[in-house]
Amino acid sequence: MLLQIRHLSKDYLSGAARTEVLRDVSFDLDAGETLALEGESGSGKSTVLHLIAGLDSPTSGSILLKGREINGLPDQAAAGMRRSDVGVIFQQFNLIPSLTVGANIAFQARLAGKEDTAFVKELAERIGLADQTEKYPEALSGGQQQRVAIARTLAARPALILADEPTGNLDESTADAVLDLMLESAAGVGAAVLMVTHSARQAARMSRRILLRHGVVQPRLQVPSP
Ligand SMILES: Nc1ncnc2c1ncn2[C@@H]1O[C@H](COP(=O)(O)OP(=O)(O)OP(=O)(O)O)[C@@H](O)[C@H]1O
């Protein structure tokens, strides 16, 4: 099992007030699987991703990556595991404006010590930007920038991609094309995808779906057959 989330809870304290954002969230994700995390605004979707990505720590519960607990590991050890196994794609593309498209694609792989020039070139081709690698991100459209962000994540060959509304800034047809690319490319490198989305249409493209309501995983309602 690639990822095991067990009894994850998260509270935020502000003065004397305590807000329970996640309560006893548990789910698994297998290698190469794709899972949509759905729910209304404020239901805790991004918080789940942030905890897995190590951007925040849970109040209780455990996060096992490849069978190893990463919550509670010394920061450096957990960061090392995440760097080699986890890639993140956000709604904001977060490209580095002073680096060319090619250097942006190579950036994360270099940080993870997995730089591979031939693979970067192959990814640039796969995202349809092979002839634009010397340009800077500002010269690209939003859809193209998100393609670069996807290629940058894939270049480090992560086992797990965490995607938070990755197509939220794009119009519907561009969003569909970018999602296709993300899923095809993830399958190409055998990466699993955990994607937060508001879009039921996009969620339907994933192999499994989980619904969060007020920080609690909901049992799926079965639609009766006609
Ligand atoms: N740092 C924080 N301090 C206090 N409360 C927070 C913090 N971060 C998130 N929250 C609260 O936690 C709840 C869940 O937020 P989260 O961003 O996970 O929801 P979401 O389902 O991803 O929403 P959206 O779809 O709008 O992005 C919200 O009520 C939010 O106000």
UniProtKB/TrEMBL annotation:
GO cellular component: membrane protein complex; plasma membrane
Gene Ontology MF, one: ATP hydrolysis activity
Domain ABC transporter per the UniProt entry, residue ranges: 3-225
Annotated keywords: ATP-binding, Cell inner membrane, Cell membrane, Membrane, Nucleotide-binding, Transport
Membrane-spanning ranges: none
Record CDD domains: ABC_MJ0796_LolCDE_FtsE
Pfam family, one: ABC_tran
Segments forming a coiled coil: none
Alphabetized SMART domains for the sequence: AAA
Source organism superkingdom: Bacteria
SUPFAM superfamilies noted in UniProt: P-loop containing nucleoside triphosphate hydrolases
UniProt xrefs under Gene3D superfamilies: P-loop containing nucleotide triphosphate hydrolases
Family: Belongs to the ABC transporter superfamily. Macrolide exporter (TC 3.A.1.122) family.
Protein's name according to its UniProt entry: ABC transporter ATP-binding protein
